[in-house]
């Protein structure tokens, strides 16, 4: 599904990683590990096509993502370290906006969905008035709405409580079972035993 081929990234004259190669197939989850500053977010941004590697390329379904980016973007769901949630809008407004800009015309029943994520009674409150974990939950609603095959997630567990972490990993399992793939960074170990878990560790390079 996804191939990272000979990818090199240099930031502020420091080579974060060089000639990196790995693949991610349907049904697989890959955890990017490594210390602060090793280059995990930089790699995720390259994989998502938001920045260009100094060398090498990303291939999706055997094609360079730069050549077929629109097609790739339809299959990709990226949730960054910064959640991409508009703090002035409510959870409901955020979700509706996201559905709209992604071309989803049928709006599912959003109240039960937000309830599943522990946001009962908070649907109409501006997100800035929610706790950090609740704000993260609003960002993660996209994982229940999107039909993207490839999820690229930067620290998705940040600020979540234990139940939130378990619930999210349950969603990961469903996604993998339905043929999706996940590339994520996390500083904490996954608590669910995923059959198809791989790890790539980036060392801090000086
Ligand atoms: N836009 C940028 N311009 C210049 N340097 C950057 C930029 N973004 C990141 N860097 C540098 O690249 C290095 C790697 O950063 P990156 O965010 O990829 O690390 P990380 O492994 O995700 O770290 P963390 O675990 O702290 O999130 C850092 O030294 C950082 O200063």
Could you please describe the fold and organization of this structure?
This is Cytochrome c biogenesis heme-transporting ATPase CcmA. The radius of gyration is 17 Å and the shape is globular. It has a single domain (2-201), classed as 3-Layer(aba) Sandwich (Rossmann fold), CATH 3.40.50.300. The chain is built from seven helices and nine strands. The chain has 206 residues and is of the alpha/beta class.
Please give a quick description of this structure.
The protein is built from 7 helices and 9 strands.
Separate helix tally:
7
Q: Report the helical percentage.
A: 25-40%
Q: What is the radius of gyration computed over CA atoms, rounded to a whole number of angstroms?
A: 17 Å
Structural class: alpha/beta
Q: Please state how the strands of the largest beta sheet are arranged side by side.
A: 6-7-8-3-9
The poorly predicted ranges are none
Protein name: Cytochrome c biogenesis heme-transporting ATPase CcmA
Organism: Pseudoalteromonas undina
